[in-house]
TrEMBL record:
It comes from Pristionchus fissidentatus. GO terms for cellular component: membrane. It holds the Pfam family UNC-93. This is Membrane transporter. It is a multi-pass membrane protein. Belongs to the unc-93 family. The chain crosses the membrane at residues 37-58, 65-81, 87-104, 125-146, 184-203, 239-258, 278-298, 310-329, 409-432. PANTHER family: ET TRANSLATION PRODUCT-RELATED, UNC93-LIKE PROTEIN MFSD11. Keywords: Membrane, Transmembrane, Transmembrane helix. It is found in: Membrane.
Length: 451
């Protein structure tokens, strides 16, 4: 279900900025040039505040119905691309933000209901890898619906003449997406979203034996009481020390899902390859699956591997990506079409695909480490900790998208790398305290058994 749902939304996010830029080039009054970034920003703003109340909704609906509601909101947004206009686009960007928050609350609850302390690390890694394997299928869809520059050029020239809107060459995107491409591509994404809805409608609900979730039955907790729980969690020192990690995931997600792939399309040296966005998605998805498999296997042999070790590996991979991107990406390419040269390394397809692999592997590491620690740090407030993690993630991501039209490559490098290093320090502190608490409980139980 995750794989089908995210195949539509996450796959299109990697190209939505250049896609809507193409629509703007043909019809400037239909949608803004940077609507891809602004729509993603609106989504994450609504996600931010919906995350505060989503645990309350989870208590009313249960994990299964919460997942289904979120999936339906994704479907509605993808459907809006059949006829692009700024009104339905921005409206559904807001509703998908609410659906996103609901989905992730249900997702976190469903994983804990179907996991024990021994299986939570493996299940988290596998679930995330399967969900993001959608990128491979999404890449195939984009490749199959792509049109050659010659074919799309003929269609677009006719469109510009009929509309009387010929964009200034310096502002026009080098890679243009035609209306036919959009409807074919988003039609395929929409069909897969319907499959996701069916899967979530029929998934089982019964908990596994020794589940780490307190209950899988809907709990009708009062709204005020739920807000109090969230308030207590937001100011719990254990959860606060994880805030840098939550912000890092927001910044890194915005980077890999939209900003970096958009820079590939906006770089003139790479724009001639219409299949590069598809290849980026497929390699990214491969990286997710590869790291998910590594963590799952390693977790069976190395205790707590999916916590700090996973995060350290992910951070090293991500920092390598940021260095390569800084050296091989023209400064303005993160927000506008450009023919400028990069700092040191000539932009090339191999560098872009290496970065895609690094980003896929690091994303799985970050999210697995986050999922595991959220389930363990405050066991009686699991839903609230997940809510808090998504609040800060979406807050950081929304800010990033709204300032994206004004940020250069070097700005991203400074911002995200510093957040990554800070996250490592504070995550290590939380893990050390968690180990100390576990040892204390173990020693206390041993003394009781002795007496």
């Amino acid at each position: 279900g995750n794989m089908c749902m995210f195949m539509g939304y996450d796959s299109q996010l990697t190209i939505v900025e250049p896609v809507l830029r193409s629509v703007h080039d043909r019809s400037p009054t239909t949608i803004h040039a940077h609507s891809g970034y602004y729509g993603a920003g609106i989504c994450t703003v609504f996600f931010t505040f919906a995350s505060i109340v989503s645990p309350w909704a989870l208590g009313l609906l249960g994990s299964k119905n919460t997942l289904l509601f979120g999936s339906l909101m994704f479907t509605l947004h993808i459907a809006s691309f059949q006829y692009v206009h700024f009104i339905p686009y921005y409206l559904t960007s807001a509703t998908i933000g609410i659906g996103y928050a609901m989905f992730y609350s249900g997702h976190g609850a469903y994983i804990t209901e179907h996991s024990t302390r021994k299986t939570i690390e493996r299940n988290s890694a596998l679930t995330w890898a399967l969900a993001t394997s959608c990128m491979i299928v999404g890449g195939v869809v984009i490749a199959l619906t792509a049109q050659t520059p010659e074919a799309s050029g003929d269609i677009l020239n006719a469109t510009f003449v009929s509309n009387g809107t010929i964009p200034v060459e310096s502002h026009r995107s080098f890679r243009q997406y035609t209306d036919i491409e959009l409807r074919l591509m988003y039609g395929a994404f929409l069909a897969v979203c319907f499959v996701a809805n069916l899967i979530f409608a029929f998934i089982p609900t019964r908990c596994v034996t020794n589940s780490i979730a307190p209950s899988n039955k809907p709990e009708r907790v009062g709204f005020v009481e739920q807000l109090k729980k969230i308030y207590d969690t937001f100011f719990d020192k254990r959860a606060l020390e994880l805030t840098p990690l939550f912000c890092l995931i927001g910044l890194s997600t915005g980077w890999w899902v939209s900003i970096y792939p958009a820079s590939l399309v906006f770089t003139k040296a790479l724009s001639g390859n219409v299949y590069l966005p598809a290849m980026y998605l497929m390699v990214f998805g491969t990286g997710e699956i590869l790291m998910g498999t590594i963590i799952s296997v390693a977790s069976k042999h190395i205790k707590n591997f999916a916590q700090l070790p996973s995060l350290i590996i992910g951070a090293l991979l991500f920092l390598t990506n940021m260095v390569l991107a800084l050296l091989a990406t023209p400064g303005p390419a993160t927000h506008s079409p450009t023919d400028e040269s990069s700092i040191l390394i000539e932009p090339s397809i191999p560098i872009a695909l290496i970065n895609a692999l690094l980003l896929g592997m690091s994303d799985n590491s970050f999210n697995t480490s986050r999922t595991v620690i959220c389930a363990l740090v405050i066991p009686d407030h699991i839903a609230q900790v997940y809510s808090m993690s998504k609040f800060y993630q979406s807050l950081a991501e929304s800010i990033l998208f709204f300032v994206a039209p004004f940020m250069s490559m070097s700005m991203y490098f400074g911002l995200i790398t510093s957040t990554c290093l800070l996250s490592l320090v504070f995550y290590a502190r939380v893990v050390i305290k968690l180990r100390a608490a576990e040892r204390s409980i173990h020693n206390e139980n041993s003394r009781k058994l002795t007496f």
